[in-house]
Amino acid sequence: MKKLLHTFWPLLALLAFAAALYVFSPRSSPPPTTSATPASSSAPTALVSKTENPSLDPTRIPRTPAASEPRTRAQEFGTTFLALLARDPEVALAYVRTLPPGPERAQALIASLDALSRSAPDRALTLARELVRTRDEANLYSLLFDRFARAELPSTVQRLAAVPPGLPRENALRALADVWATADTPAALAWAQTLPDLADRTPALETTLHNLLSRDPLQAIAAAQKLLTGPALDRIVLASLQTLTATDPQAASTLIPLLPPGETQTFAAVAVARALGAKDPDAALAWLNTLPPSQVQRLALNNILTEWVRRDETAPAPYLEKLPPGPGLDAGAAHYAGLLAARAPARAIAWAQNLPHESARQAALVSAASAWAQSEPAAAMLWASAQPTGALPLAGLTGPFSYWLLHDAPAARAWLDTAPLPPETRAQLQPK
Known about the structure:
The structure is a single chain. The chain is mostly helical. It has 3 domains: 1-27 and 51-183, no CATH class; 214-307; 312-432, no CATH class. The chain is built from 25 helices and no strands. It has helices at residues 4-7, 9-24, 45-49, 70-87, 89-98, 103-119, 121-131, 140-151, 153-159, 167-183, 185-194, 198-213, 217-227, 230-247, 249-253, 263-279, 281-288, 295-311, 316-321, 327-341, 345-353, 358-373, 377-385, 395-418, 423-429. Helix 4 packs parallel to helix 6 (103-119). It is elongated and about 85 Å long. The protein starts with a helix and ends with a helix. 40% of the residues are buried.
C-alpha cells in the first residue's frame, strides 16, 4: 500500500506528460537566429536537404553542456525542436529516429506524436508502436487515448486493438476508462466488465471505480468487492475509505472491522482514528473498542491520542490509567508520555512515574526521556542517569544520549568520560 498513489494511472501519467510538455513549450525568449555556420558534415543528408531555413536545421538543435541545469537544457532543446516541428513535421520525425533514448528523445517524441494525433490519430498510433521504446515513453499512450476518447469513444475502443500488450495497453485502457467514466460511469463500468482478458479488465475496472469513489465511495467499495481481487481491490477499498473518512469518519469507522486483517485495514484504521480523534475523542474511543486487541488497535489508539492531545493535553491521562495492564496500556502510555514530554517534560515524567504497572511505567519513562531529549538532550540525559538502579531501562539512557551526541558530541563525550555510571552502562553508551 505504500505505493498506492503511484499505482493509480490518472495522476502520475498525466503529471508526467504535463511536466514534459511544460519544459518543452516555447517560452517568451526570441526565436533562434539564422546562423551562417555550415551544417555539420556528419548530419544525415535527408534532414539537411529538406530544411530550407538554416535556423531550423536539426543538426543545429543546441547541445547545452551536461552540467547545465536540466530545465534550461530542456527549454533550449525544446524551443528549437518545436520550430522544426512546425516548419516540417516529417523532418522532425526523421530527426526523432536518430536520437538515442533519453530526455531529449522523450521530449521530441511527445511533441511530435502529440501534434500528429490532432490531425492524423491513426498514423500517430502507428508511429507510437514503432517509436516508443522505454517505460517512460509508454506514457504517451495515456496522452493519445485521453485525446482520442475526448473526441469520440467508439473509434477509441476500436483503436485499442492496435496497442501492444503490457504497459502501453494498460495506459491506453486507463485513459479511455477515465474519460468514459467521467462522462457516463455506468456505461464505462458495463464496458469494462465485458473485456475478456483479465489483464485488460482489471485496469479498466479499477480506473472506472477510482473515478466513481470521489462521488460515492460506498458504491465504489461495493462494486470493487464484486468485480476486483488482489492489489486492485485493496487500492480501491483504501482510497474509497480515505474519501469517506474525510467527509464522514463515523460511517467509515463501521467498515474497518469488516475488512480482512492486513495493510488495507491498518491504513484505513489509522486514518479513521485520526479523523475521529480530531472530531470526537469519545466516539473514537467507543469505536476503538469494536476492534479486536491487536497491532491495529494499538496503532489506532496512538493516533487517537495524537489528536486528543492537540485538543487537551491532560484529558487522555484518566482514560489510560483505567486500561488493564498489557501491551495496549504499555503502547498507549509510551505514546502519550512522549507527546506530553514534547510540551511539558516535567509533567510527563511525573505522570509516568505514578503509573502503577511497572511495564507501562518504564515504557512511558523511556518515551518521555527520548521526547524531552529532542529539545534539551543534556538535561534529559542528566535526569535519566540520576534515576535509581532498575527504575529506568537502558533504552532510557541510550535514547537521550544519542540525541545529545547529535546536538553536541564533544559535550556528550566529555560527560560520558566522567559520569558516575556502572562500567557496563558506560560501555553500552560509548559511541561505536
